[in-house]
Amino acid sequence: MSKVYFITKLFILxxxxxxxxxxxxxxxxxxxPIIITSKTLVTDNKTSTAVFEGSxxxxxxxxxIYSDKMTVFYDNSNxxxxxxxxxxxxxxxxxxxxxxxxxATYYGEEEKIVFAGEPRAIDGENxxxxxxxxxxxxxxxxxxxxxxVILKNKKEAGR
Length: 159
Prior knowledge:
The chain has helices spanning about 5-30, 155, and strands spanning about 35, 40-45, 50-60, 65-75, 80-95, 95-105, 110-115, 120-125, 125-130, 130-135, 140-145, 150. The protein is α+β, with helices and mostly antiparallel strands.
């Protein structure tokens, strides 16, 4: 496999990760509805939290987030979400692309999402994994700590 092919595939995979999460940012900026379903919902206005538990599914136009539990921290005075913490079998899915992890945290003020607990991004047969994947929404960049990249050459796979 040539260096150019490898770098091109790596670049495409990194673009996938950043574009996938940018959809979340775009949905928030345009105030499009996010539909969240779960088995239970517990809200606490004193602590400004909403806890969704049991088969949590959050949907936007073309993005779906799954988890066992999702805690939304909000600020009533600013009508903003300050943090979202998803845990247990986290999956962010867009078409044939997905990011899996044990947990993910969105930090509103810093505009970043941290995927932890064996995170891996999958695009077809290509996989990027690490100990932590951090995506900075504002800068449209990501950091993969302890990275491992597996790129499949489609021509070789067909042989």
